[in-house]
Amino acid sequence: MKGLIFTYALTYGGAVLSLLNPFYGLLIYLAFAILRPEYLWPWSVPAGNYSRTVAIALLAGWALRGFGKWEFGAARAFTWTLLGYWGWMIVSAAGASNQAVAWNHVELHSKILLPVFIGLTLIESTQQLRQVAWVLVLCLGFLAWEANWDHLQGGSRIRDEGFGAMDNNSFCIAMAAGAGLSFFLGLYERSWWQKLVCFAAAAMMVHVTMFGNSRGGMLGVIVTAIAALYLIPKRPLELSLVVVAALVGLRLAGPQVWDRFSTTFATAESRDASAESRLQLWADCWDVMQKNPLTGIGPDHWPLIASQYGWPSGKECHSLWFNAGAELGFPGLGLLAAFYGIVIWHSLRIAGRPDLRDRWFGDSARMVAAALVGFAVSASFVSLDALEVPYYIALLGGGSLKILDKVSLPFASRDAASPVSGLRWQPVS
Question: The pTM is what?
């Protein structure tokens, strides 16, 4: 019953708030995209148009506010790659063999990409960016809590069923990205209880990737941890937190976890069937890319032609990057890689700047870079182009780029001794 009350309150209360201030509608839309109430509380929340109701009110409120401010500053290139990727998907869909499948996929991505663009036009302050970060952390943390509780009771829901139309791999990779986000948000916050919430959420997310039986998720956690160690200011407190986090992670990972992860980079002789099939799938996708280099075979079309390469009909290619290349061609792959690559690159540069008046920019740059680097690597093993979380983390990075030079004036930053000193002197714009 509580889940139903929560869902209705956010849906209809959020619709009203969206008309008054569309930014609040955006926050609620992001929360619904992650929580998916009808999956989270299926016994009390019936299937319904909760996100759609909020989205319609968000669009109306956005229009009433003059469609936000289209002054993107240093986020111009990031914004153009977002629109370019979206547009190229439409071009590819127009020439696809199965129009229904192609346009359904475009519609699915439009529900993700449009809110990101709207967010870029609405974000005007670091306080708004902090609110976005907290919405992501709290929602992902709550899902991690539910998954851990199910695991402690002997359940295997995430491993066997996934969550919200996501399989275990997609869910665990979202958790891995969320762990990096949550850890650095905890470093940014001053209040002890806020730090505790963030660090506890990060620990629960890491644990989910272990019992979720996802090699991609485990790899994402490891890469995120390496990126965090590289990015974190080299001071005793921060370094001690990294050591504690590493020890906790090693303690949570049992022999079965390490045995499972060890097959990720196994030799041809010891590689299991799942790992071997990925290499064969990627080779077939590469063949498709070479035969359809410009617009690909069409959005969501690889499963339709998998049988032509000897795979069961509907088989996914198990790589975000090969999937994008096969379905959208080399331009689509390049635009998607640039979308994430631009925000990662600029986040690394911001993390090393010694002239930031507002410490949010340095800490948020670290959380975005660590989370997206981990995602980019782990996504090489799973087809998850419609996973919302990394798009919304990229929104944090793009939003910071947009307002950085407007609100952050030079001063002697306490993070001047950054590990990315080779990048810190370059201007952002």
Answer: 0.88
